[in-house]
Write a structure and sequence with these properties.
There is one protein chain. This protein is α/β, with parallel strands linked by helices. 43% of the residues lie in helices and 16% in strands. It contains seven helices and six strands; from the N terminus they run βααβαβαβααββα. It has a six-stranded parallel sheet with strand order 3-4-2-1-5-6, sandwiched between helices. The chain binds farnesyl diphosphate.
Length: 226
């Protein structure tokens, strides 16, 4: 599949999915986690090598405590449930964002999984406590710390949370909104943006096929002329 290395997902619509069924919002996130697990092997089989998932933004702390805690627990559960799958399928776990608010034991479990999978070749990148602006600021501080006063783009990228990842080729946002919501602002400079009304828990392999088919029809000029 020409040119499609990095696919990113803004998994929007979990809350509405649950509310429409008269269920608590957290059930929507649980179902969303299942949709994610279902899509990962399929997206790799379609040729992608990096998958990024926006799981929790720097702004999501303003949600009710129960929902925040529920999403945090889900992150840990997903890790536990899928660690073996990651190892057996040559997938590296990456977590982009500021892990410092997490408890020591949660941080340790995450960094342990990152360490154990680090030599694998494909990547699942979870954006957790992540914001595009905070990523840029984090990179800026990294440059200052290193005393780099005249950085190149490459120097700057080396300080981003997502440092070794290729730029995002295709961003899929479910749930009907057409905005970036502070998602990978630097990394999506030339990203093809795909929006669908499908709510994240309902997003299936055939919806991904549709998005990839749309992507393949795009003419990517990167500011040049074809
Ligand atoms: C946006 O839907 C979704 C989130 C803020 C959380 C995404 C989390 C998961 C899919 C859970 C599993 C993944 C990890 C790695 C923890 P929304 O709540 O804004 O939906 P709404 O717009 O319908 O309210």
């Amino acid at each position: 599949m020409g040119g499609l290395k990095h696919v990113a997902f803004i998994m929007d619509g979990n809350g509405r999915w649950a509310t429409a069924k008269g269920e608590p919002r957290l059930n929507g996130h649980k179902e969303g986690a299942k949709a994610m697990e279902n899509l990962v092997p399929y997206a790799f089989s379609r040729g992608a090598t990096v998958l990024s998932f926006y799981a929790f933004s720097t702004e999501n702390w303003s949600r009710p405590k129960g929902e925040v805690n529920g999403i945090l627990s889900l992150l840990m559960l997903l890790l536990k449930r899928n660690f073996k799958f990651l190892m057996e399928n040559d997938i590296k776990l990456m977590v982009s964002g500021d892990l410092s608010p997490l408890s020591e034991s949660r941080k340790r479990r995450i960094t342990d999984a990152i360490e154990k999978t680090k030599d694998n070749t494909k990547t699942v990148n979870i954006l957790f406590n992540y914001g595009g602006k905070s990523d840029i600021l984090h990179a800026f501080k990294g440059l200052v710390e290193k005393g780099i006063t005249n950085p190149t783009e490459r120097d700057f990228e080396a300080e981003l949370y997502t440092k070794e990842l290729p730029p995002v080729d295709l961003l899929i946002r479910t749930g009907g909104e057409k905005r970036l919501s502070n998602f990978m602002l630097w990394q999506s400079a030339y990203t093809e943006l795909y929006f669908t009304d499908v709510l994240w828990p309902d997003f299936t392999k055939s919806d991904l096929d549709e998005a990839i088919c749309w992507f393949e029809g795009r003419s990517r000029r990167y500011g040049g002329i074809k």
